Amino acid sequence: METNNCKIRLVNERDIPILYEHLREFVETPNASTSGNPLPPYDESKKFIMKYLIDNKNHEYDKWYIVLDENENIVGNVFLNKKNMIAYHILKKYQRKGFAESSVKLMMKENPRKRFFAIVNMKNEPSLEFVTKLGFKKKSVIFEKIESDYE
């Protein structure tokens, strides 16, 4: 599928190194993640992607797309998990150019659901603004306590 500034295509095996670099940038971006998990080793990441490609019915992601600009440059990736949760990552140098909005809308149009969800770090103001712009409404707040907090 495509809009005037981008298109999406399903992830394939050739994308594994690219997706790992996207994950690295995402993990290293302050307040981007809600999990705070460190970057996994490349082999673990490759195994995760291969499971999506080979055994999708037993994978947590339902659909996973590469986001391309009008010149076929890879600018990010978006996915939809089996619980209708969307996620997106546009590479820093392509952010604030409409790729996230276009690609998420394309993904949602390609995969219609009654409702979609997004989890956003409360400190990530640009992402909070983004999901609000897409029409998402705040549904809940999740609190976390890490064991080391009370040592």
Kindly list the characteristics that best describe this protein.
5-stranded mixed sheet, 5 strands, single chain, alpha+beta, Aminopeptidase, 151 residues
Plain-language structure description:
- The chain is an alpha+beta fold.
- The chain has one domain (6-150): Aminopeptidase (3-Layer(aba) Sandwich), CATH 3.40.630.
- The chain is 31% helix and 20% strand.
- It is built from four helices and five strands; from the N terminus they run E-H-H-E-E-E-H-E-H.
- It has helices at residues 16-28, 42-54, 99-110, 125-133, and strands at 6-10, 61-69, 74-81, 85-90, 117-118.
- Strands 1-2-3-4-5 form a five-stranded mixed beta sheet, sandwiched between helices.
- Helix 3 links the parallel strand 4 and strand 5 (117-118).
- The longest helix has 13 residues, at 16-28.
- The chain is globular, with a radius of gyration of 16 Å.
- The mean pLDDT is 90.
What is the topology?
Layout: E1 6-10, H1 16-28, H2 42-54, E2 61-69, E3 74-81, E4 85-90, H3 99-110, E5 117-118, H4 125-133
Q: Give Rg in angstroms.
A: 16 Å
Overall pLDDT metric: 90
CATH-assigned fold name: Aminopeptidase
User: Assembly state here?
Assistant: single chain
Summarize the structure in short.
The protein is α+β, with helices and mostly antiparallel strands.
